[in-house]
Design brief:
It is a single chain. 42% of the residues lie in helices and 17% in strands. It has 371 residues and is of the alpha/beta class. It has helices spanning 47-52, 62-67, 71-77, 80-84, 96-102, 128-138, 156-176, 194-206, 223-233, 251-259, 269-274, 307-311, 314-322, 326-352, 356-367; strands at residues 4-10, 17-23, 26-30, 32-35, 58-61, 90-93, 113-116, 123-126, 142-144, 183-188, 211-214, 243-245, 264-267, 278-279, 286-287. The strands form four sheets. The chain has an eight-stranded parallel β-sheet. The protein has a three-stranded antiparallel β-sheet with strand order 1-2-3. It is built from 15 helices and 15 strands. The radius of gyration is 20 Å and the shape is globular. The longest helix is centred in the last third of the chain and has 27 residues, at 326-352.
Amino acid sequence: MKVKYNLLHEEKNTQARLGTLETNHGVVDTPMFMPVGTRATVKMLTPEELYDVQAGIILANTYHLWLRPGEDLVDQAGGLHKFMNYKGPILTDSGGFQVFSLASPKDITEEGVHFKSHIDGSKLFLTPEKSIAIQNKLDSDIAMSFDECPPYPVTYDYMKKSVERTLRWAERGKKVHANSNQSLFGIVQGGEFPELRKWSAIETAKLGFDGYSIGGTSVGEDKETMYKMIEYATPYMPKDKVRYLMGVGDPSDIVEGVIRGIDMFDCVLPTRIARHGNAFTKFGKINLKNSKYKEDFTPLQDDCDCYACRNYTRAYIRHLINVDESLGGRLLSIHNIRFLIRLTEELREAIKEDRLLEYREEFYKNYQSNS
């Protein structure tokens, strides 16, 4: 089946929405945060640990899985769910972000993108049709259109041509999408230009996707610019389809995105900072390498229900990080992912009770108290 978004409640004072998303592998509540499992694994976590942090949809990456182990092997295994033994929903991104980080403007053609493998430098060519074909074989619940992800900043003319190409690529990808059990999302681009964001949103919606995402944010712009990019697009995105902000996972950005009508988020941030000894807490981010935690025998966060907080102290996790034991990064990853999922749970409650702006005020009062 295709995913189905059910709008349950719109917050009175903001653009925030409460909903559910029905998928082939379960129903998830929105707004929600998706942990990133780039290479068919959320770094250092097992599927059982993902269930324990109450993850819903997780994300895997088309580019990386195309190179290793290859979409044919995943298909032979029975698709991503069986290959990685994850029973919940999976979304695959198109590989576009990785490709454009490896390509230069001259490598982008109307047909597709020429670039070199980050593994061995071999020449590769990815087209909208190829991206969709790979995702069809990966058999994720949700596939993403192949879009051009421009850098920031660029000129208006550059961005206009880029949006036009992304729309053509979206149409090409939609035509060849051949997995009837897989949904396909379109991507809205347009940079910092209001009229281009609006135009991209309207024209992408006309193509009739199963859901819509906002791309081209968190690519070097300041936060206020990013929030404006969201505001320029969401009013023109279909109300009856889910809205996904790609690659955003900072706690404050999730709060601001939800206020502006976003339903889904993903980011590598919680596991990336965990590997460097950092933890999210409601009083801000902390670095466990700091000597003040050497004799701190309290949990990472007193009221957190994650496995790490239920069983271990800051002092112990600091020790693990300082002696390069991988368990330290694992415990911090578990906590950080649960922190962001709990944040979306709290946001859903605030939306339900029409008190989201009050929640934001309290969130910032606590979260910025250590800054």
